[in-house]
Design goal:
Blueprint (H helix, E strand, L loop, with lengths): L9 H25 L7 H14 L11 H12 L3 H28 L3 H12 L1 H4 L8 H18 L7 H11 L5 H18 L3 H23 L9 H4 L23 H9 L1 H17 L7 H20 L8 H19 L13 H16 L1
Helix pairs in contact: 1-5, 2-3, 3-4, 4-5, 4-7, 4-16, 5-16, 7-8, 8-9, 9-10, 9-15, 13-15, 14-16, 15-16
C-alpha cells in the first residue's frame, strides 16, 4: 500500500495511480511493439562487463565514464539474469524518477495539476520512453538527470542540503561523458548560492578549483578515441554523428583534447561556424530529413510546445536560480553539440526535457499568479 506520507491527499493519490497506469501501459506497448534492443551500443556494455569480471579492468580507460551502467550489468550478470535485470532496473528507475519529479514539482508550485500534467507528458513522451527498451546508457542517464533537477528543487538552494545533488552529479559523470555538463552546472549553482549569501571567498575558490578540474576531465574525455573522436566530426563535416556531409580541409597539428577546436578554428573559422550553426539547428528542431512528414509533425507536437513554454520563464531569469540553472544547461548542451555533432535519434536533447519542464512550470505559475 502506498503511504500517504508521500502523497498526502486523495487527489494526489488518484493522480499517482493515473501516472502509474499510464506509465505501465506505455512500457507494455513499447515492449510489445519493439522488444529489447540488444544491438548497436548495447554490445559494448555487455562486452565491458565481461572484461571487468574476467580481467579486472575495461578495454579502454574511456569506459570509466560509462562505468555506472557497466557495473549495473555486472551486478545482474552475477545474479544470473543480466539482460532482463538491466531492463527492469532502468525501467523502474525511470518510474521512480518521474514520481520524485512529481513530488518536487508539487513542492515547487504548491499546485496539483501542473505536476500531474508534467509527469503524464514524461510518461507518454515516446522519443524519451522508447529508450527504456534500449540497453544503452540513455534511460539511466535521463532518469538520473530527472532526479538531479528534483534534488536541486528539494535543496531549496541551501548548500547544506546539497549532498544528493553532488552524488547524482558524480553518477551522471560516470554514466555518460556528457555527465560532465551536470557537474559544471552543479558547480555554477554552488557559486550562485554563495554569491547570493555574499560569501565571495568560497565562491571564488570553488569557481577556480572547479574550473581547473573540469578542464582536466574534459581533456581526458576528449582523448578517449572511438566515439569520443572529436576531430572526425569536423574533418568529415558531421551534422548528425557518424554521417559525413563533406570534407573540411584541415590539418591536425600537435593539439590534443580541447586544442582540437583551436586547430579547426585557426584554419577554417567560417566553415567551422557554419557547421556549428547547422548542428544547433538540428539539435533544437528535433526533425530529420529521413523521417516521414507524419513523424516530423509528431516530433513538433511533442517538443515545440515545451520549448515555447520554457521561453516564458526567461522573464524571471534574473531573480530565479532554477531558471538560471536550466538556461545554462541548455546553453551548455547546445554548445557541446555545436562542437561535436547531433544524434540522429535526438538522444542528446532528452536529458534536458525534465529541466525544460521545470522552467515551463515556473513560467506558467508566475503568469497565473
Amino acid at each position: 500500500m502506498i503511504k500517504t506520507t508521500l502523497f498526502k491527499n486523495k487527489q494526489s493519490l488518484i493522480q499517482l495511480w493515473v501516472i502509474l497506469l499510464v506509465w505501465t501501459t506505455m512500457q507494455f506497448l513499447l515492449f510489445k511493439r519493439y522488444g529489447l534492443t540488444l544491438e548497436g551500443e548495447s554490445i559494448k556494455y555487455f562486452r565491458e562487463a565481461e572484461n571487468f569480471l574476467y580481467q579486472g579492468t575495461f578495454s579502454s580507460p574511456k569506459y570509466w565514464f560509462y562505468s555506472t551502467y557497466i557495473f549495473i550489468h555486472i551486478f545482474f550478470r552475477l545474479i544470473g539474469f543480466e539482460t532482463i535485470g538491466v531492463y527492469l532496473f532502468q525501467s523502474l528507475l525511470n518510474l521512480a524518477g518521474i514520481l520524485l519529479f512529481y513530488k518536487a514539482l508539487t513542492k515547487l508550485t504548491r499546485h496539483s495539476w501542473l505536476p500531474f500534467i508534467s509527469c503524464l507528458y514524461l510518461c507518454t513522451l515516446f522519443p524519451l520512453q522508447q529508450f527504456n527498451t534500449y540497453l544503452y546508457t540513455e534511460s539511466l542517464f535521463i532518469s538520473l538527470s530527472t532526479c538531479w533537477i528534483a534534488a536541486i528543487i528539494f535543496s531549496e538552494n541551501n548548500y547544506r542540503k546539497t549532498l544528493p545533488v553532488i552524488l547524482l552529479s558524480a553518477l551522471l559523470l560516470f554514466t555518460r561523458p556528457t555527465g560532465i555538463y551536470f557537474c559544471v552546472i552543479t558547480l555554477i549553482w554552488f557559486v550562485l548560492i554563495f554569491f547570493k549569501e555574499r560569501r565571495f571567498l568560497p565562491a571564488g575558490i570553488l569557481l577556480i578549483a572547479g574550473s581547473l578540474v573540469t578542464l582536466f576531465v574534459v581533456n581526458k574525455i576528449m582523448q578517449g578515441g572511438g566515439e569520443l573522436d572529436f576531430w572526425l566530426p569536423f574533418e568529415e563535416k558531421h551534422i548528425l554523428c557518424g554521417v559525413p556531409t563533406g570534407n573540411l580541409p584541415v590539418e591536425k597539428q600537435n593539439y590534443q583534447g580541447i586544442g582540437i577546436f583551436f586547430d579547426v578554428f585557426q584554419q577554417q573559422p567560417k566553415a567551422m561556424f557554419q557547421l556549428m550553426l547547422q548542428r544547433a539547428a538540428s539539435f533544437w528542431s528535433t526533425t530529420r530529413d529521413f523521417y516521414s512528414a507524419d513523424h516530423n509533425i509528431l516530433h513538433m507536437l511533442w517538443f515545440y510546445p515545451l520549448f515555447l513554454g520554457s521561453l516564458i520563464s526567461l522573464r524571471f531569469v534574473r531573480k530565479n536560480i532554477l531558471v538560471q540553472i536550466v538556461l545554462m544547461s541548455a546553453i551548455l548542451f547546445t554548445f557541446s553539440v555545436m562542437l561535436t555533432c547531433d544524434d540522429w535519434m535526438n538522444r542528446f536533447i532528452l536529458p534536458l526535457i525534465p529541466l525544460l519542464i521545470v522552467t515551463t512550470v515556473i513560467g506558467l505559475k508566475k503568469i497565473n499568479n
